[in-house]
Queue: 3 jobs
Job 1
Amino acid sequence: MVSRGVQLIKARGKEVTEPVVRAATAGMKEADTSQTAVLNDLFAPLSRKRVKDLGLTEDEEGRYVARLSREIEASGAMDKVAQGCFEHYASCHRHDANFGRYLKAHEWLGAYDVLAGEMRAEREYALLAYLPHLLAAFFPLFQERGGGRVERAKADYENYLVTRANEEIYAALARGLRAAGGGYRHLAGDAVLRLEVAPLLMRIVSPPLKPVNRQIIRPGERAVLGRVVDIMVALELRFVQEKMEDGQLTYRLDPPIDVFVTYDGKRAADIAVSKYAVRQLVATEIDARLVSVQTETGDKGRPGKEGFFRQGAGSRGAKAAAKHPGEDGEPQAKRARGDGGVPAVKVAVDFFGRPIVPKADADKTSQEKVKEAEARKTAAYRVAYRFNEGNSAAVRKPVKVAAFV
């Protein structure tokens, strides 16, 4: 392939020299050039070995604009290279009392952003050839021999993942606000939810309580605890117990709205540190409240045993009263309810609500009871026993005792 390329250059009537051969590949996209290699060339000068391999003179080594612009354009990822420059330039520790280098870097990045945005908006792709020159300006500002290697730009993707996770948390909190009823639905807007509800709600669910246990708690703290439980149950907030890597138990807030008041592992000063005992107490109260709510919801409208039997007895009494009305032509039940005289005598009932009727033989004497018992005596039964040998041949065949010895 190399010989054919040299023959092609020779056929065009040009003198075959090293600069001509190197310039023949200008403008071609280099698939093996990664953005990390381009960033390393932007923030570090060429090594002596690299200069020798490229065959560059001292004067050509100082002309970096064309070389770096060609590398940036050949990478095919100028936006990622610009993102890497923005992420890495602040870590270059070079003495600059007036921060002139950093101000110039901001200007070059701003110019690149404006030019790239206008190019895509107006579809003026002829400006694409000028974009690499704006990034090549980072070389004279931050190039340093022996500096740290540039890593792949990942801050943008990490921030994207954090943004998506926060949006999911806001969506879960908004669903809880809408499900709570009319008292909280007006707080489910995006701006109000992010600026007012989430930060203040974290302060509400982190009360400064100091309880000993569930039974020993001050009356004032019990009122605060009850209000916190009401709010968390209404908004579907829970404390979920988890085990950390070191085996220690902890309670995690679900949805985790505490991420909005925590920055680099530090919390706001006006938010009390939520202790394990306090979260355990709140979680226990929430579970008890949910159990009571589910029990009330399940038993609501369901008749009990006593109501069932009383309903049957009442229907039978109403039918009897309808068949035998009183003197005034109204059923007895209506007349008894209408007159305000002496209240009716309570009738003793059993476990199922049925009235207990006294037995008829309660007034009989002992001699009469003995006579009735003797009269109820019946003749003795005749007991008979019949042995069934069965149909098996092993049973019917006679066997001598000597066979078992």
Job 2
Amino acid sequence: MRLESFFPTYKFPNHAGFLTPMPTGSRRTRSGVCAFGAPKGMTLTTFAELGLSENIVATLTALGFATPTPIQEKGIPVVLGGRDLIGLAQTGTGKTAAFGLPMIEMLLKDEKRPDNRTTRALILAPTRELVNQIGDNLRSYLRRLPLKINQVVGGASIGKQQLQLEKGTDILVATPGRLLDLIARNAISLRAVRYLVLDEADQMLDLGFIHDLRKISKMVPPKRQTLLFSATMPSSIADLASSFLTDPIKVAVTPPGKAADKVEQHVHFVAGQNAKTEMLKKILNDNPDGRSIVFLRTKHGAEKLMKHLDATGYSVASIHGNKSQGQRERALKGFRDGEIKTLIATDVAARGIDIPAVSHVFNYDLPEVPDAYVHRIGRTARAGRDGIAIAFCGPDEGRLLRDIEKLMSIEIPVASGEPPANLARPARPQRRGGGGGAGAGGNNRNHQGQGRGKSEGGAKADGRPAKSGHRKGGNGGGNGNGANRSANGNGQNRSGNGQARPARSGTAGGRRREA
């Protein structure tokens, strides 16, 4: 059945944030059609209207949540209707509640208790931090409700986890690797699973969990309800969905490959790693009240940068695969509490983390997989806030930037510096001020003649480019050669360099890596 049959005319705006608290007495009105054939003109403004019970609605009210986010409004009725679901949404849009609330509702209606060493619902997530975050969120919905929830991740005592599962559980949240370890010890059986959730599915594939997922799929009953959530929808996710789900309904909030509306993006072209570090420190110094996440590609690079910033007086911590679970949890707590202003992270360690007050995201190293850029910058501009995403592009990273821009169908504004020679961007039509050639600040990408700020190549204190006249084609005082769009103004065209994309990082030939 097509999604349109459930939502014929209803349009959902892009919306970042979790369950959105509303002031007392206020209501958000929406127009359109409710799920499952609701009449035109009906508005969905409360969780009760989505079909949730009074007990759950009362709990949400006590937590201060009055209205659903778009993914919740679209997804909850589908899940309550018993259908398999593919949900496309970025982290921070309220996915946990979108699958957790209706799943809790149905578990309560079953009025069954789990057998020893079994679970009735299984939620799989790629990292320890995300498993713990999901578990904490679900536990907040279960206040005064007779359901049991457990979390199992690597890096924690497997013996203790075995004891916790001895009498069974209603909801089990797990990383695939640790779940299979417990199954091998006969600590848990999946024979009673009624509800299966794959959260951040694209990230699980990036980390090489595909074989583990296929093993798990053979252990759960074929008669089950399966929900898959992903920020992107590559062909590998479509293949996974076809093997896990039956006639699923697909709902989407933010189109795959798109950033949240309130993320302001900029790129600084820099000469190398030292220049990246100095630029980072300058922007951090100019924004002392900001809260920033800095992404690097490697664990070694992340730790090295963290130690340098720490030694020079910055409030900083790091999370990556070489950190113990306790170290990572302490770093995240300090960052959430505001005791730490800057968090240095790798993609693996930071996937799925929901920290609402991040003002800046830095791509210190551009990711080799373009989808990872979308995940990174999705850490800012949450819950209706604005956010700034800053990328540093070194001489050897032009191709990576080009791939990111191709995925997102945008050209990221330049804040400072000269584009590397291997950055090929398609020429765009001149927008305004028709007389401006490249050397006059119209289309020229040369740093000295780009006409993007009050001073040539200058940037604002928060890493954004100065705004005066950068869209116009008037005299920008540049020194490029006419209309050519080369990085150095020497008349070279900006055609692609034909380099092949690298293999997706983290798959390690299909072997899993648990963050």
Job 3
Amino acid sequence: LGTNPHFLVTSEGEMVEAPRHFQKAEEKLAKAQRELSRKKKGSNRRKKARLKVAKLHRKIANQRKDFHHKVARKLVNRYGTIVHEDLNVQALSRSHIAKGIHDAGWAQFLAILAYKAAAHRASGSVLAGRRVIKVDPKYTSQDCPVCGHREKKPLWVRAYTCPQCGALLHRDVAAAQNILARAWTGPSGVAIPCPRSPGL
């Protein structure tokens, strides 16, 4: 919890670092908001300060969206089937991990991913047939992908060690492999948004 720098992890072990756009700009944004609060209401200086805050928010949103498009394109180009946990993003946004959820922008990312996969299906291109599948997220990080043994561990434990068969994997890689098993339809790769990103 708070130590994993990854936005998503694949079943093959590839880890995409979370860019944390909001977190990186937070200090600058807080300063701009303080300056805005000090300006007299109705003044030109307040108007300029408000525009500055809006510009910073726009920049963060654009950076996040660009990142989402690039990652989604990479996944759609690489995999025939992309599987992710059916996360209740709205509920997570009201939890103690809300700040990290907002910064990651999972709802937007998953929408972009689904759109790109559907566009390929409709295009009739060599990449046609890309599918995005949601699976139940329960126990994906607790089950051993090798033998199926279930071992409850606190979220801050990042290594999955199975006491039953001795398997040792990164916890998120183990979860990705479990998710792949739940939606297995052929020799495809799998990628999951990782709900254990920085600040979560």
